[in-house]
Amino acid sequence: MRRLEWWQKAVFYQIYPRSFADGNGDGVGDFAGMTRRLDYLQDLGIDAIWLSPFYPSPQCDCGYDVSNYTDVAPEYGTLSDFRDFVSQAHQRNIRVIIDFVINHTSHEHPWFAESRSGRGNPKRDWYIWKDGRGGAPPNGWFSCFGGPAWELDRLTQQYYYHYFLKQQPDLNWRNPEVRRAMFDVVRFWLDLGVDGFRIDAPGTLFEDADLRESSQARSQAELYLALHQARTSEERLRASEALESLYERQVERPEVHEVMQGLRALVDTYGDGVLVGEVDDPSYHGNGTDELQLVFNFPLMRAESLRPAQIRANQSERLSRLPPGAWPCNTLGNHDSSRVWSHFADGRHDAELARLSLALMLTLRGTPFLYYGEEIGMTDLLLTDASGFRDYLSKWLYQQEIEVLGSSPAEALRNAAMLGRDKCRTPMQWSTLANAGFSPSGARTWLPVNPNFAHGVNVEGQLAVSGSMLEFYRALLRLRRSSYALTAGSWQVLAADQADCLAFLRKVDDQDLLVVLNWSDRPQLLHLNLEGARLTAPPRPSDATADRPAVASRVLFSTHRQQGHGAGLDELRIAPFEVLIAEVDLPPHRPARQEE
Ligand code: GLC
Q1: Helices within 404-516 (DSSP H only)
Q2: Is residue 122 part of a domain?
Q3: Could you confirm whether 278 is annotated as catalytic?
Q4: Catalytic: which of 200, 375, 391, 512?
Protein backbone atom coordinates (compact mmCIF):
# COMPACT_ATOMS: atom_id res chain seq x y z
CA MET A 1 0.00 0.00 0.00
CA ARG A 2 1.29 3.46 -0.83
CA ARG A 3 2.26 5.83 1.96
CA LEU A 4 -0.44 8.34 2.84
CA GLU A 5 0.21 12.09 2.79
CA TRP A 6 -0.42 14.07 5.98
CA TRP A 7 -3.62 15.59 4.58
CA GLN A 8 -5.01 12.13 3.81
CA LYS A 9 -4.57 11.06 7.41
CA ALA A 10 -5.59 14.38 8.96
CA VAL A 11 -8.87 15.46 10.50
CA PHE A 12 -9.37 19.15 9.69
CA TYR A 13 -11.17 21.59 11.97
CA GLN A 14 -12.52 24.82 10.52
CA ILE A 15 -12.14 27.92 12.66
CA TYR A 16 -14.15 31.01 11.88
CA PRO A 17 -11.73 33.52 13.44
CA ARG A 18 -14.39 36.11 14.32
CA SER A 19 -16.14 33.59 16.50
CA PHE A 20 -13.61 31.27 18.08
CA ALA A 21 -11.98 33.05 21.00
CA ASP A 22 -11.77 36.71 21.88
CA GLY A 23 -8.33 37.40 23.39
CA ASN A 24 -8.64 41.17 23.90
CA GLY A 25 -12.26 41.50 25.03
CA ASP A 26 -13.62 43.53 22.11
CA GLY A 27 -16.34 41.03 21.24
CA VAL A 28 -14.53 39.72 18.14
CA GLY A 29 -12.35 36.60 18.02
CA ASP A 30 -8.63 37.06 17.33
CA PHE A 31 -5.25 35.32 17.05
CA ALA A 32 -4.42 35.86 20.72
CA GLY A 33 -7.61 33.98 21.63
CA MET A 34 -7.06 31.24 19.04
CA THR A 35 -3.48 30.68 20.16
CA ARG A 36 -4.63 30.20 23.74
CA ARG A 37 -7.07 27.55 22.61
CA LEU A 38 -4.54 25.43 20.74
CA ASP A 39 -4.13 23.12 23.73
CA TYR A 40 -7.84 22.45 23.61
CA LEU A 41 -7.63 21.54 19.93
CA GLN A 42 -4.65 19.31 20.53
CA ASP A 43 -6.52 17.47 23.29
CA LEU A 44 -9.57 17.20 21.08
CA GLY A 45 -7.44 15.25 18.65
CA ILE A 46 -7.62 17.16 15.39
CA ASP A 47 -4.63 17.35 13.06
CA ALA A 48 -5.13 20.47 10.98
CA ILE A 49 -6.92 23.79 11.08
CA TRP A 50 -8.59 25.65 8.25
CA LEU A 51 -8.77 29.37 9.07
CA SER A 52 -11.52 31.38 7.39
CA PRO A 53 -10.34 34.86 6.26
CA PHE A 54 -8.56 37.08 8.79
CA TYR A 55 -7.29 39.67 6.29
CA PRO A 56 -8.03 43.39 6.32
CA SER A 57 -11.55 43.81 5.00
CA PRO A 58 -14.48 46.21 5.23
CA GLN A 59 -16.46 43.09 6.28
CA CYS A 60 -19.22 43.47 3.68
CA ASP A 61 -19.13 39.67 3.32
CA CYS A 62 -17.69 38.83 6.74
CA GLY A 63 -14.10 38.91 5.52
CA TYR A 64 -14.60 37.21 2.14
CA ASP A 65 -14.03 40.69 0.72
CA VAL A 66 -10.30 41.16 1.13
CA SER A 67 -8.71 44.61 0.94
CA ASN A 68 -5.15 43.41 1.57
CA TYR A 69 -4.08 39.82 0.89
CA THR A 70 -0.81 39.98 2.75
CA ASP A 71 -1.72 41.27 6.17
CA VAL A 72 -3.87 40.53 9.21
CA ALA A 73 -6.84 42.78 10.05
CA PRO A 74 -6.07 44.77 13.21
CA GLU A 75 -9.11 43.34 14.98
CA TYR A 76 -7.55 39.87 14.70
CA GLY A 77 -4.00 40.96 15.59
CA THR A 78 -0.80 41.37 13.60
CA LEU A 79 1.30 39.32 11.22
CA SER A 80 3.51 38.52 14.14
CA ASP A 81 0.48 37.12 16.03
CA PHE A 82 -0.26 35.03 12.96
CA ARG A 83 3.31 33.69 12.87
CA ASP A 84 3.10 32.89 16.54
CA PHE A 85 -0.19 31.03 16.00
CA VAL A 86 1.26 28.93 13.17
CA SER A 87 4.43 28.13 15.03
CA GLN A 88 2.55 27.15 18.20
CA ALA A 89 0.18 25.00 16.14
CA HIS A 90 3.15 23.31 14.46
CA GLN A 91 4.76 22.63 17.83
CA ARG A 92 1.61 20.66 18.64
CA ASN A 93 1.74 18.82 15.30
CA ILE A 94 -1.26 20.73 14.02
CA ARG A 95 -1.08 21.96 10.44
CA VAL A 96 -2.65 25.25 9.35
CA ILE A 97 -4.29 26.04 6.02
CA ILE A 98 -5.79 29.41 5.18
CA ASP A 99 -8.64 30.67 3.03
CA PHE A 100 -7.64 32.12 -0.32
CA VAL A 101 -10.38 34.33 -1.75
CA ILE A 102 -9.37 34.15 -5.33
CA ASN A 103 -12.29 35.25 -7.51
CA HIS A 104 -12.72 38.79 -6.24
CA THR A 105 -11.21 41.47 -4.03
CA SER A 106 -12.97 44.00 -1.86
CA HIS A 107 -14.01 47.21 -3.61
CA GLU A 108 -11.63 48.83 -1.10
CA HIS A 109 -8.59 46.91 -2.33
CA PRO A 110 -5.99 49.38 -3.72
CA TRP A 111 -5.96 47.38 -6.97
CA PHE A 112 -9.62 48.17 -7.50
CA ALA A 113 -9.20 51.80 -6.45
CA GLU A 114 -6.56 52.15 -9.17
CA SER A 115 -8.56 50.19 -11.69
CA ARG A 116 -11.65 52.33 -11.31
CA SER A 117 -9.71 55.60 -11.35
CA GLY A 118 -9.69 55.89 -15.15
CA ARG A 119 -10.16 53.91 -18.32
CA GLY A 120 -6.46 54.30 -19.10
CA ASN A 121 -5.18 53.15 -15.72
CA PRO A 122 -2.61 50.33 -16.01
CA LYS A 123 -4.74 48.21 -13.65
CA ARG A 124 -7.97 48.86 -15.58
CA ASP A 125 -7.88 45.38 -17.04
CA TRP A 126 -7.34 43.70 -13.65
CA TYR A 127 -11.12 43.69 -13.25
CA ILE A 128 -13.93 43.14 -15.73
CA TRP A 129 -15.10 46.45 -17.18
CA LYS A 130 -17.64 46.69 -20.00
CA ASP A 131 -19.75 49.30 -21.71
CA GLY A 132 -23.49 49.27 -21.09
CA ARG A 133 -26.15 48.83 -23.73
CA GLY A 134 -27.89 52.21 -24.04
CA GLY A 135 -28.32 52.82 -20.33
CA ALA A 136 -28.69 49.12 -19.48
CA PRO A 137 -26.00 46.77 -18.08
CA PRO A 138 -23.81 44.85 -20.60
CA ASN A 139 -26.07 41.78 -20.30
CA GLY A 140 -28.70 40.23 -18.06
CA TRP A 141 -26.39 38.28 -15.70
CA PHE A 142 -27.22 38.14 -12.01
CA SER A 143 -25.16 38.28 -8.85
CA CYS A 144 -25.71 35.17 -6.76
CA PHE A 145 -26.25 37.46 -3.77
CA GLY A 146 -29.18 39.14 -5.53
CA GLY A 147 -29.73 41.70 -8.28
CA PRO A 148 -27.70 42.41 -11.42
CA ALA A 149 -24.09 41.27 -11.66
CA TRP A 150 -23.03 44.62 -13.11
CA GLU A 151 -22.48 47.90 -11.30
CA LEU A 152 -22.19 51.19 -13.13
CA ASP A 153 -19.21 53.23 -12.04
CA ARG A 154 -20.13 56.89 -12.46
CA LEU A 155 -16.59 58.17 -12.87
CA THR A 156 -15.80 56.26 -16.05
CA GLN A 157 -19.35 55.39 -17.11
CA GLN A 158 -18.54 51.70 -17.47
CA TYR A 159 -19.89 48.68 -15.64
CA TYR A 160 -17.80 46.28 -13.57
CA TYR A 161 -18.74 42.66 -13.00
CA HIS A 162 -19.35 41.10 -9.58
CA TYR A 163 -20.60 37.55 -9.12
CA PHE A 164 -21.04 38.17 -5.40
CA LEU A 165 -21.71 41.59 -3.80
CA LYS A 166 -21.04 44.82 -5.64
CA GLN A 167 -18.43 45.36 -2.92
CA GLN A 168 -16.67 42.22 -4.29
CA PRO A 169 -15.56 43.07 -7.86
CA ASP A 170 -14.35 40.03 -9.84
CA LEU A 171 -10.69 39.91 -10.76
CA ASN A 172 -9.94 39.36 -14.44
CA TRP A 173 -8.09 36.03 -14.40
CA ARG A 174 -7.54 36.27 -18.15
CA ASN A 175 -4.98 38.98 -17.39
CA PRO A 176 -1.53 37.42 -16.72
CA GLU A 177 -0.64 40.27 -14.35
CA VAL A 178 -3.52 39.30 -12.09
CA ARG A 179 -2.32 35.74 -12.07
CA ARG A 180 1.22 36.82 -11.18
CA ALA A 181 0.00 39.07 -8.36
CA MET A 182 -2.24 36.37 -6.91
CA PHE A 183 0.47 33.72 -7.15
CA ASP A 184 2.76 36.12 -5.26
CA VAL A 185 0.15 36.10 -2.49
CA VAL A 186 0.40 32.32 -2.38
CA ARG A 187 4.20 32.54 -2.10
CA PHE A 188 3.91 35.13 0.67
CA TRP A 189 1.91 32.78 2.91
CA LEU A 190 3.86 29.66 2.00
CA ASP A 191 7.02 31.54 2.99
CA LEU A 192 5.37 32.21 6.35
CA GLY A 193 4.88 28.49 6.83
CA VAL A 194 1.24 27.75 6.02
CA ASP A 195 0.48 24.17 5.00
CA GLY A 196 -1.96 24.92 2.23
CA PHE A 197 -5.05 26.78 1.13
CA ARG A 198 -8.79 26.39 0.96
CA ILE A 199 -9.63 27.93 -2.40
CA ASP A 200 -12.75 30.04 -2.18
CA ALA A 201 -15.34 29.60 -4.94
CA PRO A 202 -12.98 28.58 -7.79
CA GLY A 203 -15.95 27.79 -10.03
CA THR A 204 -16.62 31.51 -10.35
CA LEU A 205 -13.13 32.47 -11.59
CA PHE A 206 -14.07 32.79 -15.25
CA GLU A 207 -17.25 33.69 -17.04
CA ASP A 208 -18.27 33.41 -20.67
CA ALA A 209 -15.92 35.66 -22.64
CA ASP A 210 -18.67 36.59 -25.12
CA LEU A 211 -21.09 37.50 -22.32
CA ARG A 212 -23.74 35.12 -23.68
CA GLU A 213 -27.04 35.17 -21.82
CA SER A 214 -28.29 32.31 -19.68
CA SER A 215 -30.89 30.02 -21.24
CA GLN A 216 -32.99 30.37 -18.09
CA ALA A 217 -35.89 32.61 -19.07
CA ARG A 218 -37.27 33.26 -15.59
CA SER A 219 -35.96 36.14 -13.51
CA GLN A 220 -34.04 35.74 -10.27
CA ALA A 221 -37.02 36.97 -8.22
CA GLU A 222 -39.34 34.41 -9.86
CA LEU A 223 -36.86 31.63 -9.25
CA TYR A 224 -36.47 32.59 -5.59
CA LEU A 225 -40.24 32.66 -5.29
CA ALA A 226 -40.46 29.13 -6.75
CA LEU A 227 -37.83 27.96 -4.27
CA HIS A 228 -39.74 29.61 -1.48
CA GLN A 229 -42.99 27.94 -2.49
CA ALA A 230 -41.54 24.46 -3.02
CA ARG A 231 -43.07 22.07 -0.53
CA THR A 232 -41.60 18.66 -1.32
CA SER A 233 -37.94 17.77 -1.59
CA GLU A 234 -38.51 16.97 -5.25
CA GLU A 235 -39.90 20.48 -5.83
CA ARG A 236 -37.07 22.05 -3.85
CA LEU A 237 -34.50 20.17 -5.90
CA ARG A 238 -36.07 21.27 -9.17
CA ALA A 239 -36.36 24.87 -7.97
CA SER A 240 -32.75 25.05 -6.84
CA GLU A 241 -31.54 23.49 -10.11
CA ALA A 242 -33.53 26.11 -12.02
CA LEU A 243 -31.97 28.84 -9.90
CA GLU A 244 -28.50 27.45 -10.50
CA SER A 245 -29.07 27.40 -14.25
CA LEU A 246 -29.50 31.16 -14.09
CA TYR A 247 -25.71 31.43 -13.58
CA GLU A 248 -24.73 28.83 -16.19
CA ARG A 249 -22.63 31.26 -18.27
CA GLN A 250 -20.94 32.75 -15.24
CA VAL A 251 -19.41 29.66 -13.68
CA GLU A 252 -17.37 26.55 -14.45
CA ARG A 253 -15.56 27.71 -17.57
CA PRO A 254 -12.83 25.27 -18.64
CA GLU A 255 -10.03 27.85 -18.21
CA VAL A 256 -10.26 27.43 -14.44
CA HIS A 257 -8.41 24.12 -14.62
CA GLU A 258 -5.29 25.72 -16.01
CA VAL A 259 -5.23 28.11 -13.04
CA MET A 260 -5.67 25.20 -10.65
CA GLN A 261 -2.76 23.42 -12.34
CA GLY A 262 -0.62 26.51 -11.94
CA LEU A 263 -1.51 26.79 -8.27
CA ARG A 264 -0.77 23.13 -7.68
CA ALA A 265 2.59 23.36 -9.40
CA LEU A 266 3.47 26.38 -7.28
CA VAL A 267 2.41 24.78 -3.98
CA ASP A 268 4.28 21.59 -4.90
CA THR A 269 7.53 23.53 -5.20
CA TYR A 270 7.25 24.19 -1.45
CA GLY A 271 6.86 20.57 -0.41
CA ASP A 272 3.76 18.86 0.87
CA GLY A 273 1.15 21.65 0.98
CA VAL A 274 -2.49 20.89 0.28
CA LEU A 275 -5.15 22.60 -1.82
CA VAL A 276 -8.79 22.05 -1.04
CA GLY A 277 -11.41 23.69 -3.21
CA GLU A 278 -14.84 24.96 -2.33
CA VAL A 279 -16.25 22.77 -5.09
CA ASP A 280 -17.69 19.30 -5.34
CA ASP A 281 -16.86 18.45 -8.93
CA PRO A 282 -14.19 15.72 -9.11
CA SER A 283 -12.89 17.31 -12.33
CA TYR A 284 -11.02 19.71 -10.01
CA HIS A 285 -8.72 16.80 -9.16
CA GLY A 286 -7.45 17.08 -12.74
CA ASN A 287 -5.66 13.87 -13.64
CA GLY A 288 -5.53 13.00 -9.93
CA THR A 289 -2.19 14.62 -9.26
CA ASP A 290 -2.09 17.95 -11.09
CA GLU A 291 -4.93 20.08 -9.66
CA LEU A 292 -6.58 20.17 -6.22
CA GLN A 293 -5.82 17.34 -3.81
CA LEU A 294 -9.23 17.65 -2.16
CA VAL A 295 -12.72 18.68 -3.25
CA PHE A 296 -15.63 18.56 -0.85
CA ASN A 297 -18.40 16.00 -0.91
CA PHE A 298 -21.04 18.75 -0.77
CA PRO A 299 -23.89 16.56 -2.03
CA LEU A 300 -23.74 14.69 1.27
CA MET A 301 -23.68 17.92 3.27
CA ARG A 302 -26.61 19.29 1.31
CA ALA A 303 -28.82 16.20 1.64
CA GLU A 304 -32.08 17.11 3.33
CA SER A 305 -31.69 14.19 5.67
CA LEU A 306 -29.10 11.47 6.02
CA ARG A 307 -30.47 8.01 5.33
CA PRO A 308 -28.47 4.83 4.69
CA ALA A 309 -29.68 4.45 1.09
CA GLN A 310 -28.65 8.00 0.22
CA ILE A 311 -25.29 7.64 1.89
CA ARG A 312 -24.58 4.40 0.02
CA ALA A 313 -25.59 5.99 -3.29
CA ASN A 314 -23.51 9.07 -2.52
CA GLN A 315 -20.40 7.05 -1.68
CA SER A 316 -20.68 4.78 -4.63
CA GLU A 317 -21.08 7.75 -6.97
CA ARG A 318 -18.30 9.84 -5.40
CA LEU A 319 -15.75 7.08 -5.05
CA SER A 320 -16.27 5.81 -8.57
CA ARG A 321 -15.73 9.27 -10.06
CA LEU A 322 -12.37 9.89 -8.40
CA PRO A 323 -9.48 9.81 -10.85
CA PRO A 324 -6.63 7.47 -9.87
CA GLY A 325 -4.53 9.01 -7.10
CA ALA A 326 -7.28 11.38 -5.91
CA TRP A 327 -8.65 11.25 -2.40
CA PRO A 328 -12.18 11.87 -1.04
CA CYS A 329 -13.08 14.62 1.39
CA ASN A 330 -16.23 14.79 3.51
CA THR A 331 -17.91 17.48 5.52
CA LEU A 332 -21.32 18.12 7.01
CA GLY A 333 -21.08 21.77 7.90
CA ASN A 334 -19.26 25.04 7.41
CA HIS A 335 -19.78 28.79 7.80
CA ASP A 336 -22.25 28.85 4.89
CA SER A 337 -24.57 26.05 5.96
CA SER A 338 -26.76 24.91 8.81
CA ARG A 339 -24.97 23.36 11.76
CA VAL A 340 -24.98 19.56 11.73
CA TRP A 341 -27.09 19.31 14.86
CA SER A 342 -29.83 21.58 13.49
CA HIS A 343 -29.68 20.35 9.91
CA PHE A 344 -30.34 16.71 10.68
CA ALA A 345 -32.59 17.14 13.73
CA ASP A 346 -36.07 15.59 13.76
CA GLY A 347 -37.20 17.31 16.95
CA ARG A 348 -37.20 14.07 18.94
CA HIS A 349 -33.86 12.36 18.53
CA ASP A 350 -31.66 15.34 17.77
CA ALA A 351 -28.74 14.29 19.95
CA GLU A 352 -28.71 10.75 18.56
CA LEU A 353 -28.91 11.96 14.97
CA ALA A 354 -26.08 14.45 15.52
CA ARG A 355 -23.88 11.68 16.93
CA LEU A 356 -24.65 9.39 14.02
CA SER A 357 -23.79 12.13 11.54
CA LEU A 358 -20.48 12.86 13.22
CA ALA A 359 -19.63 9.19 13.52
CA LEU A 360 -20.29 8.94 9.80
CA MET A 361 -17.84 11.79 9.11
CA LEU A 362 -15.11 10.08 11.07
CA THR A 363 -15.60 6.63 9.57
CA LEU A 364 -16.20 7.31 5.87
CA ARG A 365 -13.29 6.93 3.52
CA GLY A 366 -11.64 10.32 3.01
CA THR A 367 -10.44 13.38 4.86
CA PRO A 368 -13.06 14.81 7.25
CA PHE A 369 -13.56 18.55 7.74
CA LEU A 370 -15.26 19.46 11.00
CA TYR A 371 -16.70 22.85 11.89
CA TYR A 372 -15.96 24.57 15.20
CA GLY A 373 -18.58 23.87 17.85
CA GLU A 374 -19.82 20.63 16.27
CA GLU A 375 -17.97 18.76 18.98
CA ILE A 376 -20.22 20.18 21.69
CA GLY A 377 -23.41 20.06 19.65
CA MET A 378 -23.72 23.78 18.94
CA THR A 379 -26.94 24.55 17.10
CA ASP A 380 -28.11 27.23 14.68
CA LEU A 381 -29.24 30.43 16.34
CA LEU A 382 -32.04 32.18 14.49
CA LEU A 383 -31.81 35.89 15.17
CA THR A 384 -35.03 37.52 16.28
CA ASP A 385 -34.21 41.07 15.33
CA ALA A 386 -33.46 42.02 11.73
CA SER A 387 -31.16 44.84 12.87
CA GLY A 388 -28.87 42.16 14.31
CA PHE A 389 -28.12 40.53 10.92
CA ARG A 390 -24.42 40.68 10.06
CA ASP A 391 -24.58 38.53 6.92
CA TYR A 392 -25.45 40.59 3.88
CA LEU A 393 -27.43 37.66 2.51
CA SER A 394 -29.82 37.72 5.48
CA LYS A 395 -30.33 41.45 5.07
CA TRP A 396 -31.07 41.05 1.37
CA LEU A 397 -33.38 38.08 1.90
CA TYR A 398 -35.29 40.01 4.55
CA GLN A 399 -35.83 42.92 2.22
CA GLN A 400 -36.84 40.62 -0.68
CA GLU A 401 -39.31 38.77 1.51
CA ILE A 402 -41.05 42.00 2.40
CA GLU A 403 -40.78 43.88 -0.88
CA VAL A 404 -41.08 41.10 -3.47
CA LEU A 405 -42.89 38.29 -1.70
CA GLY A 406 -45.08 40.49 0.51
CA SER A 407 -44.31 38.44 3.63
CA SER A 408 -45.13 39.78 7.08
CA PRO A 409 -42.11 41.15 9.01
CA ALA A 410 -42.25 38.16 11.36
CA GLU A 411 -42.24 35.66 8.50
CA ALA A 412 -39.56 37.61 6.64
CA LEU A 413 -37.40 37.60 9.74
CA ARG A 414 -37.78 33.87 10.25
CA ASN A 415 -37.01 32.98 6.63
CA ALA A 416 -34.09 35.39 6.35
CA ALA A 417 -32.63 34.07 9.61
CA MET A 418 -33.04 30.51 8.39
CA LEU A 419 -31.65 31.00 4.88
CA GLY A 420 -28.94 33.48 5.88
CA ARG A 421 -25.63 32.44 7.42
CA ASP A 422 -25.41 34.29 10.74
CA LYS A 423 -27.13 31.31 12.33
CA CYS A 424 -24.05 29.09 12.17
CA ARG A 425 -21.42 31.75 12.92
CA THR A 426 -22.19 32.56 16.55
CA PRO A 427 -19.38 32.62 19.14
CA MET A 428 -17.84 29.39 20.36
CA GLN A 429 -19.28 28.27 23.69
CA TRP A 430 -16.45 27.61 26.10
CA SER A 431 -18.09 27.67 29.53
CA THR A 432 -21.05 28.89 31.57
CA LEU A 433 -19.38 32.23 32.28
CA ALA A 434 -20.93 35.37 30.80
CA ASN A 435 -20.66 35.39 26.99
CA ALA A 436 -20.01 31.64 27.21
CA GLY A 437 -16.38 32.42 28.01
CA PHE A 438 -15.86 33.59 24.43
CA SER A 439 -15.54 37.24 25.45
CA PRO A 440 -15.25 38.61 28.98
CA SER A 441 -18.36 39.66 30.83
CA GLY A 442 -19.64 43.04 29.70
CA ALA A 443 -18.24 42.77 26.16
CA ARG A 444 -20.75 43.00 23.32
CA THR A 445 -20.05 40.07 21.03
CA TRP A 446 -20.24 40.66 17.26
CA LEU A 447 -23.09 38.14 16.97
CA PRO A 448 -25.12 37.08 20.00
CA VAL A 449 -24.02 34.00 21.91
CA ASN A 450 -26.48 31.14 21.69
CA PRO A 451 -28.23 31.04 25.09
CA ASN A 452 -28.00 27.24 25.16
CA PHE A 453 -24.42 27.64 26.43
CA ALA A 454 -26.02 27.89 29.88
CA HIS A 455 -27.78 24.56 29.37
CA GLY A 456 -24.92 22.21 28.80
CA VAL A 457 -23.77 23.25 25.34
CA ASN A 458 -20.31 24.40 26.34
CA VAL A 459 -16.82 22.89 26.45
CA GLU A 460 -16.08 23.12 30.16
CA GLY A 461 -19.36 21.52 31.19
CA GLN A 462 -19.01 18.68 28.70
CA LEU A 463 -15.43 17.94 29.69
CA ALA A 464 -16.76 17.24 33.15
CA VAL A 465 -19.73 15.11 32.14
CA SER A 466 -19.45 11.53 31.16
CA GLY A 467 -21.50 10.62 28.11
CA SER A 468 -21.30 14.15 26.69
CA MET A 469 -21.12 14.92 23.01
CA LEU A 470 -17.56 16.14 23.51
CA GLU A 471 -16.54 12.88 25.12
CA PHE A 472 -18.13 10.97 22.25
CA TYR A 473 -16.26 13.08 19.74
CA ARG A 474 -12.90 12.83 21.46
CA ALA A 475 -13.24 9.07 21.75
CA LEU A 476 -13.99 8.75 18.05
CA LEU A 477 -11.10 11.00 17.11
CA ARG A 478 -8.77 8.89 19.28
CA LEU A 479 -10.05 5.75 17.64
CA ARG A 480 -9.56 7.19 14.18
CA ARG A 481 -5.96 8.00 15.03
CA SER A 482 -5.21 4.58 16.38
CA SER A 483 -6.97 2.52 13.69
CA TYR A 484 -5.20 2.75 10.41
CA ALA A 485 -8.15 1.12 8.65
CA LEU A 486 -10.31 4.15 9.43
CA THR A 487 -7.96 6.42 7.51
CA ALA A 488 -6.41 4.23 4.85
CA GLY A 489 -8.93 1.44 4.54
CA SER A 490 -10.98 0.64 1.48
CA TRP A 491 -14.76 1.01 1.73
CA GLN A 492 -17.14 -1.85 1.23
CA VAL A 493 -20.87 -1.77 1.80
CA LEU A 494 -22.58 -4.61 3.66
CA ALA A 495 -26.30 -5.30 3.95
CA ALA A 496 -27.00 -2.95 1.07
CA ASP A 497 -30.75 -3.56 1.26
CA GLN A 498 -31.05 -2.30 4.83
CA ALA A 499 -33.25 0.79 5.03
CA ASP A 500 -32.31 1.85 8.54
CA CYS A 501 -28.79 0.62 9.10
CA LEU A 502 -25.66 1.61 7.29
CA ALA A 503 -23.05 -1.13 7.56
CA PHE A 504 -19.65 -1.10 5.91
CA LEU A 505 -16.15 -2.46 6.15
CA ARG A 506 -12.95 -0.44 6.18
CA LYS A 507 -10.03 -2.70 5.29
CA VAL A 508 -6.27 -2.52 5.23
CA ASP A 509 -3.78 -5.35 5.04
CA ASP A 510 -3.81 -6.16 8.70
CA GLN A 511 -7.09 -4.75 9.95
CA ASP A 512 -10.75 -5.13 9.02
CA LEU A 513 -13.16 -2.75 10.70
CA LEU A 514 -16.89 -3.10 10.69
CA VAL A 515 -18.94 0.08 11.12
CA VAL A 516 -22.68 -0.10 11.77
CA LEU A 517 -24.83 2.99 12.20
CA ASN A 518 -28.50 2.54 13.04
CA TRP A 519 -30.50 5.53 11.88
CA SER A 520 -33.77 4.34 13.41
CA ASP A 521 -35.38 4.47 16.83
CA ARG A 522 -35.96 0.70 16.69
CA PRO A 523 -33.53 -2.15 17.30
CA GLN A 524 -32.37 -3.91 14.16
CA LEU A 525 -31.33 -7.45 13.47
CA LEU A 526 -28.62 -7.65 10.85
CA HIS A 527 -27.46 -10.69 8.93
CA LEU A 528 -24.17 -9.50 7.58
CA ASN A 529 -22.90 -11.17 4.51
CA LEU A 530 -19.31 -11.29 5.60
CA GLU A 531 -18.78 -14.40 3.56
CA GLY A 532 -19.22 -12.14 0.54
CA ALA A 533 -16.95 -9.53 2.05
CA ARG A 534 -14.30 -12.13 2.59
CA LEU A 535 -14.56 -13.42 -0.91
CA THR A 536 -13.99 -10.02 -2.50
CA ALA A 537 -10.30 -10.54 -1.74
CA PRO A 538 -9.78 -14.20 -2.56
CA PRO A 539 -7.76 -16.21 -0.08
CA ARG A 540 -4.48 -17.66 -1.21
CA PRO A 541 -5.07 -21.23 -2.49
CA SER A 542 -2.73 -22.66 0.10
CA ASP A 543 -4.76 -21.26 2.97
CA ALA A 544 -6.48 -24.00 4.88
CA THR A 545 -8.58 -21.76 7.12
CA ALA A 546 -10.29 -19.97 4.25
CA ASP A 547 -13.73 -21.33 5.05
CA ARG A 548 -13.82 -20.40 8.69
CA PRO A 549 -16.86 -18.12 9.33
CA ALA A 550 -16.17 -14.51 10.21
CA VAL A 551 -16.85 -13.13 13.69
CA ALA A 552 -16.63 -9.66 15.14
CA SER A 553 -13.70 -10.19 17.36
CA ARG A 554 -13.69 -6.98 19.36
CA VAL A 555 -15.87 -3.93 19.90
CA LEU A 556 -13.66 -0.86 19.55
CA PHE A 557 -16.37 1.72 20.04
CA SER A 558 -20.08 1.61 20.69
CA THR A 559 -22.72 3.90 22.07
CA HIS A 560 -24.41 0.86 23.64
CA ARG A 561 -21.92 -1.89 24.42
CA GLN A 562 -18.71 -2.40 26.28
CA GLN A 563 -15.44 -1.90 24.53
CA GLY A 564 -13.51 -5.12 24.10
CA HIS A 565 -16.58 -7.35 24.07
CA GLY A 566 -17.23 -9.70 21.20
CA ALA A 567 -20.28 -9.61 18.96
CA GLY A 568 -21.59 -12.36 16.74
CA LEU A 569 -22.18 -11.22 13.21
CA ASP A 570 -24.54 -13.78 11.74
CA GLU A 571 -27.29 -12.26 13.82
CA LEU A 572 -26.15 -8.87 14.94
CA ARG A 573 -28.57 -6.97 17.14
CA ILE A 574 -28.14 -3.24 16.86
CA ALA A 575 -29.74 -0.92 19.40
CA PRO A 576 -31.76 2.13 18.32
CA PHE A 577 -29.36 4.83 17.02
CA GLU A 578 -26.38 2.70 17.90
CA VAL A 579 -22.92 3.52 16.59
CA LEU A 580 -20.82 0.36 16.50
CA ILE A 581 -17.25 0.00 15.36
CA ALA A 582 -15.75 -3.45 15.70
CA GLU A 583 -12.58 -5.11 14.60
CA VAL A 584 -13.52 -8.11 12.53
CA ASP A 585 -11.58 -11.27 12.22
CA LEU A 586 -11.89 -12.34 8.60
CA PRO A 587 -9.52 -15.26 8.44
CA PRO A 588 -7.25 -15.52 6.69
CA HIS A 589 -5.69 -12.08 6.43
CA ARG A 590 -4.83 -11.38 2.87
CA PRO A 591 -3.77 -8.32 0.90
CA ALA A 592 -6.87 -6.12 0.99
CA ARG A 593 -8.19 -4.72 -2.23
CA GLN A 594 -7.21 -1.06 -2.23
CA GLU A 595 -9.10 1.63 -4.06
CA GLU A 596 -6.31 4.16 -3.89
C1 GLC B 1 -17.59 31.35 -0.53
C2 GLC B 1 -17.56 31.56 0.96
C3 GLC B 1 -18.72 32.44 1.34
C4 GLC B 1 -18.57 33.77 0.62
C5 GLC B 1 -18.41 33.56 -0.89
C6 GLC B 1 -17.92 34.81 -1.55
O7 GLC B 1 -18.74 30.69 -0.93
O8 GLC B 1 -17.61 30.33 1.61
O9 GLC B 1 -18.80 32.65 2.72
O10 GLC B 1 -19.68 34.57 0.87
O11 GLC B 1 -17.46 32.58 -1.18
O12 GLC B 1 -16.58 35.03 -1.26
Answers
A1: 409-419, 459-464, 469-482, 484-488
A2: yes
A3: yes
A4: 200
